[in-house]
Write a structure and sequence with these properties.
It is built from ten helices and 18 strands. The strands form three sheets. Strands 1, 2, 8, 9, 10, 11, 17 and 18 form an eight-stranded mixed beta sheet that branches. A hairpin with a 4-residue loop joins strand 9 and strand 10. Helix 1 runs parallel beside helix 6, helix 1 runs parallel beside helix 9 and helix 2 crosses helix 9. The mean pLDDT is about 95. Bound molecules: flavin-adenine dinucleotide. The site of flavin-adenine dinucleotide has 40 residues, from helix 1, strand 2, strand 12, strand 16 and helix 9. Flavin-adenine dinucleotide binds next to helix 1, strand 2, strand 12, strand 16 and helix 9.
Length: about 400
């Protein structure tokens, strides 16, 4: 059925955690904006957000990412107050159990440099030498681990609940969710004017926000722009360990291995850095078929010998929106000649931890033309146009 033409102040394309956070801050802004979120699949079966590990950390090397995390962390801590009055608010289960980066000798200097920057920005970040690491976390025993950086204020959330919390919060403040797939954007000489859905519905908009996650490039194509953002399959696993392990923070090593406690077991994995971009629909055939046994498990057992005796219970996957230029977010307008079409995309694995601050930044872009609370100029599309990467250092 073709709906009659609709008109909104802001149309958000993609209602994952980032689009829903943007809708929440826009609808709550008190600026009398009409906000619509177009979501292709409200079960979120293939969306990235529900598949994430939910880790929220302040351990970055770029001040923008540290600032985004610090504010988002404080928002997640007071999520229930921020969402006061929202009906059926899910529990995001924020667990403040810390983050621990461990590195071998070749990563020491960078870890120290990053810790210094984080501490200078008010992050409680402690360096732990080998003896201190052994004392605090005796299960972590790999011979070559030389240094750790521990941020006890960090933690993790349930990302599915985070997504639905923002979605229900946005609706509570008046945002409308429309189920449909955007397959075209109408433009005039100077701006985007409307989005077209697959069923023929045309939705007019004063501002268009592209937060389509790993599909963001398809939407950008509709107005003739190439974004360096591609879907990249990432697999996670849940296992139980036969032996007792002391309470651990989210642990990450210099090779990208990560895990954290989850219920009576552990969740984690190791991104493969050599797969081809693109959507994967089956991890039990092809590249990932023995990935846990051949790649992840040996790395886990080397870091935590108790993991030699584990039972893999489940594997699942999602797709990063990987920014091939530098692995960092792109925010703001990106479509030449259409300043009212903006995005926040290319999170490459940081979208859950940054969603609150990015949602607020997108609302500021809509209302004021730029991000105001945190200076995100260096994360705008201009660096893509100039082909000037702004990558993290020592953080995978
Ligand atoms: C295994 C794994 C572990 C991760 N761990 C972490 C972690 O620990 N911490 C962290 O911060 N991040 C993590 N991430 C990354 C994080 O999950 C993402 O960065 C984040 O979920 C991105 O949210 P999003 O809203 O941009 O995208 P999505 O959740 O994918 O939402 C995009 C939405 O757009 C919709 N859409 C697409 N095309 C259209 C269209 N044409 N019309 C209408 N709607 C459309 C989709 O249906 C989808 O719902 C992880 C990701 C994976 C896969």
């Amino acid at each position: 059925m073709v709906r009659e033409a609709l008109k909104y102040s802001v149309v958000v394309i993609g209602g994952g955690i980032v689009g829903s956070a943007a809708a929440f801050f826009l609808a709550r802004s008190g600026n009398d904006l009409s906000v619509a979120v177009i979501e292709a699949d409200s079960t979120y079966t293939h969306a990235t957000s529900p598949q994430g590990a939910g880790g929220v950390r302040q351990q970055f090397s770029r001040p923008e990412n540290i600032a985004l995390s610090t504010w988002s962390l404080s928002f997640y801590k007071r999520f229930n107050q921020e969402m006061a009055g929202v009906p059926d608010l899910p529990d995001i289960n924020f667990r403040q159990q810390g983050y621990l980066f461990v590195v071998s000798a070749d990563g020491e200097a960078t870890l120290c440099q990053n810790q210094e920057l984080q501490a200078s920005m008010g992050v409680h970040a402690q360096l732990l030498d080998r003896d201190e690491l052994k004392r605090r976390f005796p299960s972590i025993l790999r011979d070559d681990i030389a240094l750790g950086c521990y941020t006890p204020d960090d933690g993790w959330i349930d990302p599915h609940a985070g997504l639905w919390g923002f979605r229900r919060g946005a609706m509570h403040h008046g945002a409308e969710y429309i189920e449909g797939r955007v397959n075209g954007i109408e433009v005039s000489k100077t701006k985007g004017t409307a989005v077209r859905l697959a069923d023929g519905t045309v939705i007019h908009a004063e501002m268009i926000v592209n937060t389509a996650g790993p599909w963001v490039g398809e939407i950008a194509h509709m107005t003739g722009t190439e974004l360096p953002v591609v879907p990249m399959c990432r697999v996670q696993h849940f296992w139980k360990c036969a032996e007792n392990v002391e309470p651990l923070p989210l642990v990450k090593d210099g090779r990208g291995l990560f895990f954290r406690p989850e219920g009576t077991g552990f969740a984690g994995g190791r991104p493969s850095f050599d797969i081809e971009p693109g959507f994967v629909d089956d991890i039990y055939r092809g590249y990932f078929s023995n990935y846990f046994e051949e790649t992840v498990w040996p790395m886990l057992a080397a870091l935590v010998p108790k993991f030699e005796d584990l039972h893999l219970e489940r594997s699942w996957f999602g797709h990063y929106a990987q920014n091939l230029l530098d692995g960092n977010m792109i925010i703001g307008s990106y479509s030449p000649g259409h300043d009212n079409i903006i995005t926040a995309c290319g999170f490459s694995g940081h979208g859950i931890m940054h969603a609150p601050a990015v949602g607020r930044a997108l609302a500021e872009h809509v209302l004021h033309g730029t991000s105001q609370s945190i200076d995100l100029t260096r994360l705008e599309f201009e660096r893509v146009r100039r082909d000037e990467p702004y990558a993290e250092i020592g953080i995978r």
